Amino acid sequence: MVATQVKHDVKDLSLAPLGKQRIDWAGREMPVLRQIQERFAQEKPLAGIRLVACCHVTTETAHLAIALKHAGADAVLIASNPLSTQDDVAASLVVDYGISVFAQKGEDNETYHRHVNIALDHRPNIIIDDGSDVVATLIQERQQQIPDLIGTTEETTTGIVRLKAMLRDGVLTFPAMNVNDADTKHFFDNRYGTGQSTLDGIIRATNILLAGKTVVVAGYGWCGKGTALRARGMGANVIVTEVDPVRAIEAAMDGFRVMPMEAAAPYGDLFITVTGNKHIIRGEHFERMKDGAIVCNSGHFDIEIDLKTLKSMASEVKQVRNFTEEYRLNSGKSIVVLGEGRLINLAAAEGHPSAVMDMSFANQALACEYLVKNKGQLEPGLYSIPTEVDQEIARLKLQAMGIAIDTLTDEQVEYMNSWTSGT
């Protein structure tokens, strides 16, 4: 056990033993990040770097934080969502690993923003962001610190949308690594991770049977695809709503019914939003829903469901289970909201399985190393993870899974690089 003099704001340090046990368990399925950590411990690529990580404080995130510390970083960890922190993990990171953590499950918005500013007081050289709140606060309120910044990394679709908007507005004056769009991130984390963990959170909060239910999935990006596939796999009848015509065609050809939310509202027993946009489910939709319909969100922010309007339509709001609130409408019917409209997979469950976060956090760790190695050489803007990094992460994952694949012969390499060969 290390000294607990490191600065922190966690719920209860006595939870550390349980957190340590759970961190160790998660590590069993994170072999890629473990190999990166071992190399980092020898090479110290982040020595002298002040780093802020704004992430969901889970057992998987713990392994990223530990790897960054082994790399030599002076790191501070804060929560990226008020309901996603696992308090025992936060305690263990402070007590057992000497990492400064400012995160408590259930913290209010004032505390959340205070923690963002505490993190920025660290004067970071690297920011790992999850939703771009820290970067947005830096640009809006602390522009004098921008010269300290080497760059940032972002692993959420919502955060990438915000960074692209910053770039369009000319305020993104430093490099940002688009971790979210790495193949070894969104193909697996967004699809398999979100798909499984979203249904896990719903079942923990409600204990409902999904088989035979009509589930409406709003959005058919990678997160929506995973959620819809997993719901169908558990026997649900799935309807998809979309605004993108290409994704709508894809959903239809994947065998799902596709219709507008207004048309889907009367059919749904369970509604799941995964769009990254706001007010996907609104007052006119609540009015058309059946009595007892359940709504929840697995997008990053708690704005996909218009809870303000729902509250104005309700005569009574009461908690009926943990993370489950029943809104009794003036019309007499009820609408059930899970996890206060926040990420249901982290509010009511434990987030993505460690096996899939292994690749996502490998990307984060290597993106930080890339920024430091290329300090001063990258123009302001949004950068993709280098293909060779993506491929190496996939290779390490396959190796850990005991899977071998073919390699191209010299003749095949020559053919693929030639234009003269044909029929």
UniProtKB/TrEMBL annotation:
It is an enzyme of class 3 (hydrolase). Substrate binds at T58, D130, E155, K185, D189. NAD(+) binds at residues 156-158, 190, 219-226, 242, 277, 298-300, 345, 352. CDD domains: SAHH (cd00401). One of its GO terms (cellular component) is cytosol. Keywords: Cytoplasm, Hydrolase, NAD, One-carbon metabolism. HAMAP family: AdoHcyase. This is Adenosylhomocysteinase. It comes from Thermocoleostomius sinensis A174. The lineage of its organism: Bacteria, Bacillati, Cyanobacteriota, Cyanophyceae, Oculatellales. The gene is ahcY.
